[in-house]
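Sorry, explain these C-alpha cells?

***
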Amino acid sequence: GFDRNGSQLQALGRGAQDSRNGTIVDFWTNMYAGIAKCNYVLANMERGKNVIPEATYKQCESEVRFLRALFYSYLTELYGGVPLVKTPITLSEAKMKRNTKDEVVDFILTELDQCAEFLPQKNNPTTGRATKGAAHALLAKVYLYQGNWKGVKDQCVAITGYNLVTDYVQY
C-alpha cells in the first residue's frame, strides 16, 4: 500500500528534512527559476516601452512584480531569510548570502504596494492574471504571517468590488 509517512513532504512536516529532500530542492529551484524569469523580463522590458501604451506597460510590469513578490512570499514562509535577487545575475554572481527575513518581507510589501496601483480591478477569471484584489490579498497574507494585524485589516478592507461566482461554467 501507500506509505504516506515516508514521503518527502511528510519529512518536512515532521521536521526531518535535509538538503537531500527532493521536494524541498525542487521548490527552492522552481521559485528561483520564476524569480529569474521575472528579473529578466523587468530588466529587458524597457526596450518595448516606446511601442506599448503606457497603461499596458505599467500593468505588465506590475504583473511581473506581483509574481516575483509571490515567489518570495512562498520562500520566506518556508525558509525565513533567503537571498534577495532583484536583477538578472551571472553564474559567477550566483553564490549569494541570505538576506534577513525582515529585508525580504520589506521588499515583498513594497513590491505589492507599488504594483497594486497599476493592476486592473478585474480580469477574465480564466486567465490567471494578477488583479488589485490579488495584490491586496497577498499583502494581507504577508502581514498576517508577520503578526501585523493593522496591516491585515487595512489590506482586507482594500479588497472591494469582488463577488463569488455562482456559476463558474459561464466563464
